[in-house]
Amino acid sequence: MTTTRRPRPQRYDGRDYLTTAQTARRLGVKPETVYAYVSRGILASNRIEGVPGSLFAVDEVEALSNRAGAGRVASGAVERIRTQITLLDNDILYYRGRRVTDLADRPFECVAELLWGGTLPDSASFVAPTATVAHAQAAVRALPAGARLTDRMRVIVDVAGACDRLRFDISAPSAIRAAGGLIATVAAALGDVVDPNSTIAERLWPAFASADPTPDQVRLLNSALVLLADHDLAASTLAARMAASTRANVYSVVAAGLGGIDGPYHAGATSGAHRFLASAMADPLGALGLKLRDGERVPGFGHTIYQRHDPRAEYLLARLRTLPEAAPILTAADAVAVELANRKGLFPNSDFALAALALSLGMTADAAEAIFAFARMAGWVAHALEEYNEKALRFRVPGVYTGMRGS
């Protein structure tokens, strides 16, 4: 059966098309098999000016995935999520078609607006309702002294939702307005800075470090927020989308994301990288040797998606090299990274870079994890806005019962 090639629209940007790697993942086959489908006329390969590589129409790939004999076809609801927010392709991360490393110096607020609406503004400002911040700070003060920053974030989000009596209006303008206020509220309640003329990174800084920051340090924190704002359908993002599919409001969506991110294999991995790098300061090779002796994975290295390098880590580590205060940390980090690259072909990921950032800038032990979680709030809202336009409750999947059956 030969599939008719769809005409290429003028000045088309590649939207509604999949790369070869994406098509292979969707069909459960190797890239070579995708090329075989093209040669046999089963799939039409498209070339679009300005977009590298072969592209395949989503509708054609979906049609093929539903046909018998197409390979190990993924059939769950998750594999059918179409998104125009974030692309991971060939070890490059894009937000709305823009390389994230090209956005890293833009204000976090502007990049959040890009994720939410598709347009990158020249400036953006998020304002926290004064009364809401006061309620949130009171709730945080009631927590035990040892409460983590992410524990505090969850409480602040819940309080902010309770204070917004119009939170159930999930129309795009209202949801975006609520999201900006929520991000500003979390930053103000955590960092105790409410000044609307300051940036989100400036408001957050006091939550992470006691010393006043330099302008370069604030810019680096802002870049970290931008780089970690979204990462396609990570586990926490899927949790957020599931909440949005029930038409949960923005606050509940972010709460769902914070629940999903809390495990040791998500944001918790950042804390593991922080502990390892802190222990490696005095004797990097000795700390690495202990991990290897115990047969443990070295936190902060390798990635399930990136094959050769993590662009977020590369960017942050390169920026850290411009700060003199980071030199001792990077000396230890480099010693570990060189050995793991030579022995196991592993590279530093964003968890390791955030750990190096936090240690270099004198931040608290849980700052790296909190930066990750805070940044990702922008991405969860973007996915919620997208999910609100899909069929409600589309993730209701029947389980496969394997327990005892009644007589």
Structure, described:
The chain is mostly helical. The protein folds into 2 domains: 64 residues, Multidrug-efflux Transporter Regulator, Chain: A, Domain 2, CATH 1.10.1660; 289 residues, Citrate Synthase, domain 1. 52% of the residues lie in helices and 6% in strands. The protein has 18 helices and 6 strands. A 3-stranded antiparallel beta sheet has the order 1-3-2. Strand 5 and strand 6 form a beta hairpin. It is globular. The N terminus is likely disordered. One of its GO terms (cellular component) is cytosol. InterPro entries: Citrate_synth-like_lrg_a-sub, Citrate_synth-like_sm_a-sub, Citrate_synthase, Citrate_synthase_AS, Citrate_synthase_sf. Belongs to the citrate synthase family. Keywords: Transferase. One of its GO terms (biological process) is carbohydrate metabolic process.
Which CATH-level-2 architecture of the largest domain? Answer: Orthogonal Bundle
Ranges with pLDDT <50 over ≥5 residues?
Answer: 1-12, 68-75
Helix content: 40-55%
What's the β-strand tally?
A: 6
**What top-tier CATH class of the largest domain fits best?**
Mainly Alpha
From the 3D structure, determine the CATH topology of the largest domain. Citrate Synthase, domain 1
Give the N-to-C terminal Cα separation.
49 Å
Radius of gyration: 23 Å
The CATH homologous superfamily of the largest domain is called Citrate Synthase, domain 1
Biggest β-sheet strands, sense, barrel: 3 strands, antiparallel
Residue-averaged pLDDT, rounded? 90
The computed structural class is: mainly alpha
How many alpha or pi helices? 18
Order of helices and strands: EHHEEHEEEHHHHHHHHHHHHHHH
Number of domains: 2
State which percent range the strand residues make up: 5-15%
Principal-axis shape equals: globular
Family: Belongs to the citrate synthase family.
InterPro entries: Citrate_synth-like_lrg_a-sub (IPR016142), Citrate_synth-like_sm_a-sub (IPR016143), Citrate_synthase (IPR002020), Citrate_synthase_AS (IPR019810), Citrate_synthase_sf (IPR036969)
GO molecular function, one term: citrate synthase activity
Pathway: Carbohydrate metabolism; tricarboxylic acid cycle
